[in-house]
Design goal:
The protein is built from one helix and 13 strands, in the order E-E-E-E-E-E-E-E-E-E-E-E-E-H. The strands form two sheets. Strands 2, 4, 6, 8, 9, 11, 12 and 13 form an eight-stranded antiparallel beta sheet that branches. It has a five-stranded antiparallel beta sheet with strand order 1-3-5-10-7, with no helix packed on it. The radius of gyration is 25 Å and the shape is elongated. By secondary structure, it is mainly beta.
Length: about 240
Protein backbone atom coordinates (compact mmCIF):
# COMPACT_ATOMS: atom_id res chain seq x y z
CA UNK A 1 0.00 0.00 0.00
CA UNK A 2 1.49 3.31 -1.01
CA UNK A 3 0.52 5.53 1.91
CA UNK A 4 -1.79 5.89 4.86
CA UNK A 5 -4.09 8.37 3.17
CA UNK A 6 -5.05 5.91 0.46
CA UNK A 7 -6.75 3.74 3.06
CA UNK A 8 -8.25 6.44 5.24
CA UNK A 9 -11.66 5.28 6.31
CA UNK A 10 -14.51 7.75 5.98
CA UNK A 11 -16.29 8.84 9.14
CA UNK A 12 -18.75 6.48 10.71
CA UNK A 13 -22.05 6.49 8.92
CA UNK A 14 -25.25 7.33 10.74
CA UNK A 15 -26.73 4.04 11.84
CA UNK A 16 -30.46 3.42 11.68
CA UNK A 17 -31.85 2.57 15.08
CA UNK A 18 -34.02 -0.47 15.29
CA UNK A 19 -35.21 -2.96 17.84
CA UNK A 20 -34.75 -6.66 17.38
CA UNK A 21 -35.52 -9.81 19.32
CA UNK A 22 -32.26 -11.50 20.17
CA UNK A 23 -31.95 -15.10 19.08
CA UNK A 24 -30.80 -17.88 21.37
CA UNK A 25 -27.05 -18.18 21.77
CA UNK A 26 -25.22 -20.41 19.30
CA UNK A 27 -21.69 -21.09 18.20
CA UNK A 28 -20.65 -18.85 15.33
CA UNK A 29 -20.03 -20.64 12.07
CA UNK A 30 -20.21 -19.20 8.60
CA UNK A 31 -23.12 -21.40 7.52
CA UNK A 32 -25.35 -20.16 10.37
CA UNK A 33 -24.98 -16.43 9.87
CA UNK A 34 -28.17 -15.86 7.92
CA UNK A 35 -28.60 -13.50 4.97
CA UNK A 36 -26.01 -10.91 4.02
CA UNK A 37 -26.64 -7.19 4.41
CA UNK A 38 -25.10 -4.01 2.98
CA UNK A 39 -26.17 -1.90 6.00
CA UNK A 40 -23.88 1.00 6.66
CA UNK A 41 -22.54 0.99 3.10
CA UNK A 42 -22.31 3.77 0.54
CA UNK A 43 -20.74 4.50 -2.84
CA UNK A 44 -17.57 6.61 -2.69
CA UNK A 45 -15.43 7.42 -5.77
CA UNK A 46 -17.23 6.80 -9.10
CA UNK A 47 -16.72 3.25 -10.36
CA UNK A 48 -15.98 2.52 -14.04
CA UNK A 49 -19.02 2.68 -16.33
CA UNK A 50 -21.23 -0.42 -15.98
CA UNK A 51 -19.61 -1.47 -12.68
CA UNK A 52 -21.54 -1.46 -9.39
CA UNK A 53 -19.59 -2.73 -6.41
CA UNK A 54 -21.11 -3.51 -3.00
CA UNK A 55 -20.25 -5.60 0.04
CA UNK A 56 -22.25 -7.84 2.33
CA UNK A 57 -21.89 -8.76 6.01
CA UNK A 58 -23.99 -11.29 7.95
CA UNK A 59 -26.99 -9.92 9.83
CA UNK A 60 -25.94 -11.89 12.89
CA UNK A 61 -22.79 -13.42 14.33
CA UNK A 62 -22.01 -14.93 17.72
CA UNK A 63 -19.05 -14.49 20.06
CA UNK A 64 -17.80 -17.25 22.37
CA UNK A 65 -17.94 -15.88 25.90
CA UNK A 66 -14.87 -17.85 27.01
CA UNK A 67 -12.44 -17.40 24.12
CA UNK A 68 -13.97 -14.17 22.72
CA UNK A 69 -13.63 -15.72 19.27
CA UNK A 70 -16.11 -15.14 16.47
CA UNK A 71 -16.33 -15.80 12.74
CA UNK A 72 -18.05 -14.10 9.83
CA UNK A 73 -18.09 -13.94 6.05
CA UNK A 74 -17.21 -10.78 4.12
CA UNK A 75 -18.48 -10.65 0.54
CA UNK A 76 -17.74 -8.27 -2.31
CA UNK A 77 -20.20 -8.23 -5.22
CA UNK A 78 -20.34 -6.70 -8.69
CA UNK A 79 -23.98 -5.88 -9.40
CA UNK A 80 -23.14 -4.08 -12.64
CA UNK A 81 -23.19 -5.16 -16.28
CA UNK A 82 -19.41 -5.01 -16.89
CA UNK A 83 -16.36 -6.59 -15.31
CA UNK A 84 -14.84 -4.60 -12.48
CA UNK A 85 -11.19 -4.62 -13.48
CA UNK A 86 -8.59 -5.33 -10.80
CA UNK A 87 -9.96 -4.46 -7.35
CA UNK A 88 -9.18 -5.26 -3.74
CA UNK A 89 -11.22 -5.62 -0.57
CA UNK A 90 -10.05 -4.37 2.82
CA UNK A 91 -11.32 -5.99 6.04
CA UNK A 92 -10.65 -3.62 8.96
CA UNK A 93 -11.46 -3.97 12.68
CA UNK A 94 -12.18 -1.20 15.20
CA UNK A 95 -12.51 -0.96 18.99
CA UNK A 96 -13.55 -4.29 20.52
CA UNK A 97 -13.60 -6.19 17.22
CA UNK A 98 -10.12 -7.29 16.12
CA UNK A 99 -9.62 -9.15 12.85
CA UNK A 100 -7.22 -12.06 13.36
CA UNK A 101 -7.19 -13.58 9.88
CA UNK A 102 -8.94 -13.47 6.53
CA UNK A 103 -8.50 -16.59 4.43
CA UNK A 104 -6.53 -15.89 1.26
CA UNK A 105 -5.67 -12.31 2.29
CA UNK A 106 -2.61 -10.48 3.64
CA UNK A 107 -2.30 -8.61 6.93
CA UNK A 108 -1.78 -4.85 6.66
CA UNK A 109 1.36 -3.32 8.17
CA UNK A 110 0.72 -1.20 11.25
CA UNK A 111 1.78 1.96 9.38
CA UNK A 112 -0.85 1.31 6.71
CA UNK A 113 -3.78 0.74 9.06
CA UNK A 114 -6.59 3.28 8.71
CA UNK A 115 -6.79 5.84 11.50
CA UNK A 116 -8.47 4.47 14.62
CA UNK A 117 -8.36 0.83 13.52
CA UNK A 118 -6.66 -2.03 15.35
CA UNK A 119 -6.28 -4.59 12.54
CA UNK A 120 -6.70 -4.96 8.81
CA UNK A 121 -6.29 -7.34 5.89
CA UNK A 122 -6.01 -6.79 2.14
CA UNK A 123 -7.74 -9.20 -0.24
CA UNK A 124 -6.67 -9.05 -3.89
CA UNK A 125 -9.98 -9.79 -5.57
CA UNK A 126 -8.69 -9.30 -9.10
CA UNK A 127 -11.22 -8.86 -11.90
CA UNK A 128 -14.76 -9.50 -10.68
CA UNK A 129 -17.10 -10.40 -13.51
CA UNK A 130 -20.51 -8.76 -13.84
CA UNK A 131 -23.08 -10.36 -11.55
CA UNK A 132 -20.43 -12.32 -9.63
CA UNK A 133 -19.32 -12.18 -5.98
CA UNK A 134 -16.35 -13.30 -3.93
CA UNK A 135 -16.55 -14.27 -0.25
CA UNK A 136 -13.85 -14.42 2.42
CA UNK A 137 -13.87 -16.26 5.76
CA UNK A 138 -12.97 -13.87 8.58
CA UNK A 139 -11.76 -14.94 12.03
CA UNK A 140 -11.91 -12.29 14.74
CA UNK A 141 -12.20 -11.66 18.44
CA UNK A 142 -14.80 -9.47 20.12
CA UNK A 143 -14.32 -7.88 23.54
CA UNK A 144 -17.83 -7.67 25.02
CA UNK A 145 -16.68 -4.96 27.44
CA UNK A 146 -16.35 -2.60 24.46
CA UNK A 147 -18.15 -1.63 21.29
CA UNK A 148 -16.91 -3.33 18.11
CA UNK A 149 -16.99 -2.24 14.45
CA UNK A 150 -15.87 -3.57 11.09
CA UNK A 151 -15.26 -1.80 7.78
CA UNK A 152 -15.18 -3.15 4.22
CA UNK A 153 -13.77 -0.69 1.67
CA UNK A 154 -13.56 -1.79 -2.00
CA UNK A 155 -10.70 -0.09 -3.86
CA UNK A 156 -8.86 -0.15 -7.15
CA UNK A 157 -5.73 -2.30 -7.19
CA UNK A 158 -3.36 0.41 -5.90
CA UNK A 159 -5.70 1.89 -3.30
CA UNK A 160 -5.97 5.32 -4.89
CA UNK A 161 -9.76 5.10 -5.28
CA UNK A 162 -12.40 3.70 -2.95
CA UNK A 163 -15.48 2.71 -4.94
CA UNK A 164 -17.58 1.46 -2.02
CA UNK A 165 -17.30 1.39 1.76
CA UNK A 166 -19.40 -0.51 4.26
CA UNK A 167 -18.93 0.89 7.71
CA UNK A 168 -17.32 1.23 10.10
CA UNK A 169 -20.53 -0.55 11.05
CA UNK A 170 -21.08 -1.99 14.54
CA UNK A 171 -21.91 -5.49 15.62
CA UNK A 172 -23.44 -5.60 19.08
CA UNK A 173 -26.23 -6.44 21.46
CA UNK A 174 -28.34 -4.53 23.92
CA UNK A 175 -28.65 -7.65 26.07
CA UNK A 176 -25.27 -9.30 26.74
CA UNK A 177 -25.28 -12.91 27.94
CA UNK A 178 -22.22 -13.25 30.20
CA UNK A 179 -23.39 -16.56 31.71
CA UNK A 180 -24.23 -18.23 28.37
CA UNK A 181 -21.76 -20.14 26.17
CA UNK A 182 -22.07 -17.49 23.46
CA UNK A 183 -23.58 -14.04 22.94
CA UNK A 184 -25.42 -13.26 19.68
CA UNK A 185 -24.48 -9.98 18.00
CA UNK A 186 -26.60 -8.12 15.44
CA UNK A 187 -25.31 -5.98 12.60
CA UNK A 188 -25.79 -2.21 12.95
CA UNK A 189 -26.47 -2.49 16.69
CA UNK A 190 -24.38 -0.55 19.20
CA UNK A 191 -23.03 -2.94 21.80
CA UNK A 192 -24.06 -2.50 25.42
CA UNK A 193 -20.87 -3.67 27.15
CA UNK A 194 -21.01 -6.33 29.84
CA UNK A 195 -20.34 -4.77 33.24
CA UNK A 196 -18.57 -6.43 36.18
CA UNK A 197 -21.95 -6.79 37.89
CA UNK A 198 -23.68 -8.11 34.79
CA UNK A 199 -24.28 -11.50 36.38
CA UNK A 200 -25.61 -10.16 39.68
CA UNK A 201 -29.02 -9.30 41.04
CA UNK A 202 -29.81 -5.62 41.63
CA UNK A 203 -29.95 -4.21 45.15
CA UNK A 204 -33.31 -4.50 46.87
CA UNK A 205 -32.79 -1.76 49.42
CA UNK A 206 -30.34 0.72 50.92
CA UNK A 207 -27.15 -1.00 52.01
CA UNK A 208 -28.14 -4.37 50.57
CA UNK A 209 -25.21 -6.41 49.28
CA UNK A 210 -25.27 -7.73 45.75
CA UNK A 211 -25.54 -11.48 45.51
CA UNK A 212 -24.51 -13.62 42.54
CA UNK A 213 -27.57 -15.19 40.92
CA UNK A 214 -26.61 -18.71 41.96
CA UNK A 215 -26.12 -17.74 45.61
CA UNK A 216 -29.35 -15.76 45.66
CA UNK A 217 -31.28 -18.72 44.23
CA UNK A 218 -29.82 -21.08 46.82
CA UNK A 219 -30.71 -18.63 49.58
CA UNK A 220 -34.32 -18.45 48.41
CA UNK A 221 -34.56 -22.24 48.35
CA UNK A 222 -33.12 -22.41 51.85
CA UNK A 223 -35.63 -19.85 53.14
CA UNK A 224 -38.47 -21.79 51.53
CA UNK A 225 -37.33 -25.07 53.09
CA UNK A 226 -36.98 -23.43 56.49
CA UNK A 227 -40.52 -22.09 56.24
CA UNK A 228 -41.91 -25.55 55.50
CA UNK A 229 -39.93 -27.06 58.38
CA UNK A 230 -41.19 -24.34 60.77
CA UNK A 231 -44.79 -24.97 59.74
CA UNK A 232 -44.41 -28.70 60.32
CA UNK A 233 -42.73 -28.27 63.70
CA UNK A 234 -45.12 -25.63 64.98
CA UNK A 235 -47.19 -27.25 67.80
CA UNK A 236 -50.91 -27.42 67.37
CA UNK A 237 -53.04 -25.45 69.81
CA UNK A 238 -55.05 -27.65 72.15
CA UNK A 239 -58.82 -27.01 72.09
CA UNK A 240 -60.09 -25.22 75.17
CA UNK A 241 -62.36 -27.21 77.47
Amino acid sequence: MSSRHTTTIAGSLLTASFSAVLILSFTAVADDQGPGSSKGGKAMDPAPAGVKLTTLLPEKISVDNSSHETALTATVKNEGTKDSGKIRLLVVGFDGLQVKSVKGCSAMADKDLPKGSNSGFVCDVGNLAAGKSQSYAVAATFDLSKTGKICLPVQDSDGKKTFWQQGPVPFGTTNPSPNAPATPLLLDTENKPVTPGGDQLPKTGAGSDLLPLGVAGAALVSVGAAGVWWAQRRPRRQPQS
